[in-house]
Design a protein that fits this description.
With about 400 residues, the protein is α/β, with parallel strands linked by helices. The chain has helices spanning about 15-20, 30-45, 60-70, 80-90, 105-115, 125-135, 170-185, 205-220, 245-260, 270-275, 305-310, 400-404; strands at about 1-5, 5-10, 15, 25-30, 50-55, 75, 95-100, 120, 140-145, 190-195, 225-230, 265, 280-290, 295-300, 315-320, 330-335, 345, 360, 380-385, 390-395. Helix 7 (about 170-185) links the parallel strand 9 and strand 10. The relative contact order is 0.16.
Length: about 400
């Protein structure tokens, strides 16, 4: 993804061609970048060859999932719908883990019938429901238990999942109690110790603390887990300030952990695979002047891309066509929805923009399309996947007639 003759290009495709052909806003992905990210992730941990289960919630487009499956990855799912779409994409059931705090009986029944690798249980009650289903089917079901390690990931509080006040996992005391119960069950196999401490983590130190907690628990239990599911959460460089996650250090501390605790590692990456492979192209509807700043009102809105409104997340915005003219005012990039939070970015330095120009919101591959909605009865954008110079429509833009 770069500028060629001052026009932003994805692989060998000029985005000028895209906006001439398609209505905006539109999500656009690079197949090459997805493949590069998967290759980098695999190489970072090749010393112990983990099972890599892509976090389906980060991007659940069927064609994207097919690309990810074709590159050898499994899937981490958190609903029956995500499990169904992962299977439809051709993901091997033995590379699928089912996470989440509120799996219904119907969802658990479906997962058990599909013989997936693991159901990672998050409460005593859920374990009992799985056992009851297994008993009714006269079969033994492989499960994991998700530990809440009370580890601060030092990330946004809205995406922290490993502290004791978070709803995820169970504490050490209950973990040991339910483990003893499972050992005596005729219908449950305890295969996995699961943990996940948050998202957009850029420092390896929280993972070090997490692994220390796991090490102590395993010693206390004197139990050999076949799998250790370390979740995902590795962040990406949204601001392009070179604050990148150190995969090398994380690999080192995991190898140290594995010398004492022989197990197969499972990862559940999402953002680090898909995040920087996607952009959102938007057209400027109006530029509304005020004394100190101008509001750049775009046709993309918080319903299309929710992260800034939901988390206060900041994504770089760049022009589709570069010029040398700079503005003397600050710009507020906002959408047309009737909410003050429908705002993407404030910038003090930007090239001068005009109405009907196009701009690009960067790094929206993760939690972009998957968090989009029809708020204000707005159709969800189309999604395209670029392969070299070829444009593939992987989801059509919704029609108002269908919504209404």
């Amino acid at each position: 993804m770069k500028y060629t003759n001052n026009i932003f290009t994805v692989e060998n495709c000029s985005l000028k061609k895209v906006v001439q052909k398609f209505e905006t806003p539109i999500f656009c992905y690079s197949q090459k970048r997805i493949k590069e990210n998967i290759k980098k992730f695999k190489e970072s941990f090749k010393s112990f060859s983990p099972i890599i289960c892509f976090s389906t919630k980060s991007n659940s487009n069927l064609e994207i999932l097919k690309e990810i499956k074709n590159n050898g990855l499994g899937a981490d799912v958190v609903s029956k719908g995500e499990l169904m779409i992962a299977l439809k994409a051709g993901v091997n059931p033995k590379k699928i883990v089912f996470s989440g705090v509120g799996k219904t009986k119907s969802e658990l029944l479906y997962a058990i019938d599909k013989n997936i690798l693991l159901i990672n249980c998050e409460s005593r009650s859920e374990i009992l429901v799985v056992e009851a289903i297994a008993r009714s089917k006269k079969k033994k079901v492989d499960i994991g238990i998700r530990l809440n390690p009370n580890t601060d990931a030092k990330t946004l509080k809205q995406i922290s999942t490993g502290k004791k006040e978070n709803k995820f996992g169970i504490n050490e005391k209950i973990f040991i109690e339910v483990s003893k119960y499972i050992k005596n069950s005729k219908f449950l196999n305890l295969k996995c110790l699961s943990v996940h401490i948050g998202s957009q983590i850029l420092d390896h130190k929280p993972y070090q603390k997490m692994l220390n907690v796991l090490d102590k628990l395993i010693k206390k239990m004197d139990f050999k887990f076949e799998y250790i599911d370390l979740g995902g959460g590795m962040g990406i460089d949204y601001n392009k300030d070179n604050k990148k996650f150190d995969f090398k250090k994380y690999n080192q501390i995991i190898n140290k952990f594995l010398k004492k605790n022989k197990a197969k590692i499972i990862f559940e990456p999402g953002r680090s695979i898909i995040g920087d492979s996607g952009i959102l192209i938007s057209k400027i509807i109006y530029i509304k002047e005020s004394s100190k700043k101008d509001f750049v009102i775009m046709d993309a809105a918080m319903n299309d891309f929710m992260r800034p409104a939901l988390y206060g997340a900041e994504h770089r915005i760049i022009p589709l066509k570069k010029t040398k003219k700079m503005t003397h005012k600050s710009y507020d990039f906002v959408g047309p929805i009737c909410e003050t939070t429908d705002k993407f970015l404030t910038t003090n330095k930007f090239q001068k923009l005009n109405e009907n120009d196009y701009i690009i919101i960067c790094d929206v591959g993760a939690y972009g399309s998957s968090l989009s909605s029809n708020y204000n009865i707005r159709p969800k954008p189309a999604e395209i996947l670029i392969k070299g110079s070829k444009i593939n429509v992987i989801k059509k833009r919704q029609k108002l007639e269908d919504l209404i």
